[in-house]
Amino acid sequence: FKKYNSKHSEETSKRKQKFAVGYRSAKYCRLYEKFIVDDSLLAIPLLPSLFPILMQKNHCSKPVPLIVGGINASRGEFPHMAALGYDRGEWIDFLCGGTLISERYVLTAAHCAKTKWGLPIIVRLGTLNLIADVGQNVDVEDVIIHPGYSEPSCYNDIALVRMVEGLKMDKNLRPACLPPPTTLSGEPGNFLTATGWGRTGYGLFSSPNLQKVSLEVMDNRTCDRMFLGGRRTERLPTGIHSSMLCAAGYLDSSHDTCQGDSGGPLQTLSRHSKCMYDVIGITSFGKLCGTGLPAIYTRVSMYVHWIEDIVWPSPS
């Protein structure tokens, strides 16, 4: 009986672990790591072995240390970056960003599904320049908006874009990881990288080149005071919640995200998966770009359970 009880407890523990929040996304993140490395056979050596040697070639991009005030990203640096295209009649306009998180799903902001041009109809991946680079275009099958999102407020500003078919991934096109639900990466004082094709300054045009910028996370209380000044608005009727995070460039700099960066990632290199990024935040909204005021981001770690149930549903 003791032996059975011990075995039963062990199986129950394993079952609970498989259904724990963050388990599924971490499992798939490790699987996606394989696209960073190529296996290749070297020439057969004369001695001492008569067998070919398997050599692993690492395609991990090297991020340049550190979008308004940003600089151009390098090819392969953000292989998970997506652009969402909207039907403007005679042309497709890329108005929002997103993050590839699996073969078929892109993470973005809910308000990117509520534009005056309707839903996005296409996802463009594997590109740095939206004009010169065609990249890989995939039609949108569906957009799933978080049930807690309700305009005009910006709470729960998160959505998932499902593409019509799964992508064939490689070293230049692979997903980002979700952060652990208890991650500290979004803590005040941490520096994260924002990426997007948004406007390069208030009143200026969007950048055709993917931009990146380093931003510092600010504590929500300070952010609430700077952003709202004690007032409440339609967008933030009850202030800034824990499901949001704030980030800004240095007060004397123009570093910021701007219109057109919406839905794009605020990210950091993963502590758990080599050469992979964790998407910590989703660009939600701000005031005037590059004025030193913080921008608001959806805190992804608060939504891991919701994302997992859609992207990697558990077998019933």
Automatic annotation (TrEMBL):
It comes from the Eukaryota. SUPFAM superfamilies: Trypsin-like serine proteases. SMART domains: Tryp_SPc. The keyword Protease applies. GO terms for molecular function: serine-type endopeptidase activity. Keywords: Disulfide bond, Hydrolase, Protease, Secreted, Serine protease. InterPro entries: Peptidase_S1_PA, Peptidase_S1_PA_chymotrypsin, Peptidase_S1A, Ser/Thr_Proteases_Immune/Dev, Trypsin_dom, TRYPSIN_HIS, TRYPSIN_SER. One of its GO terms (biological process) is protein processing. This is Peptidase S1 domain-containing protein.
